[in-house]
Specification:
Blueprint: H1 2-24, H2 31-35, E1 58-62, E2 69-75, E3 85-86, E4 103-109
Antiparallel strand pairs: 1-2, 2-4, 3-4
Length: 110
């Protein structure tokens, strides 16, 4: 399903972030810093439904000290994934219910 792909995409992002932290002692400050680090993440994934057209469905927010982060994706069917789901994500990011999204999947550290 598209939600399964979103979970997989966030897992790839999580692995890239953890690898980048091992090298730099903190998480990257922005998405561009993740994708520009050779070998960690070739490109920022695009959502399987929107393909990045209109808005980006994946959101990365790093903590002020660079020692924590959250990565979120909007999902269509909350029942299609068993953990990491919720009804909120980073502040200021509105759920796009008009596009069929019903909630969020989020990966956080710590």
């Amino acid at each position: 399903t598209r939600d399964t792909r979103r979970v997989s995409d966030l897992e790839k992002i999580r692995v890239a972030l953890e690898s980048a932290k091992q090298v730099g002692n903190s998480y990257p400050a922005a998405v561009g810093n993740i994708t520009n680090l050779t070998g960690f993440l070739d490109k920022w994934p695009s959502d399987p439904k929107t393909n990045g057209v209109g808005f980006s469905n994946y959101r990365y927010v790093v903590g002020s000290s660079g020692t924590s982060y959250s990565v979120c994706a909007m999902v269509e069917l909350l029942t299609s994934i068993s953990s990491g789901i919720g009804t909120s994500c980073s502040s200021g990011w509105s759920l796009q219910t008009g596009l069929g999204f019903t909630g969020y999947y989020m990966v956080t550290q710590p």
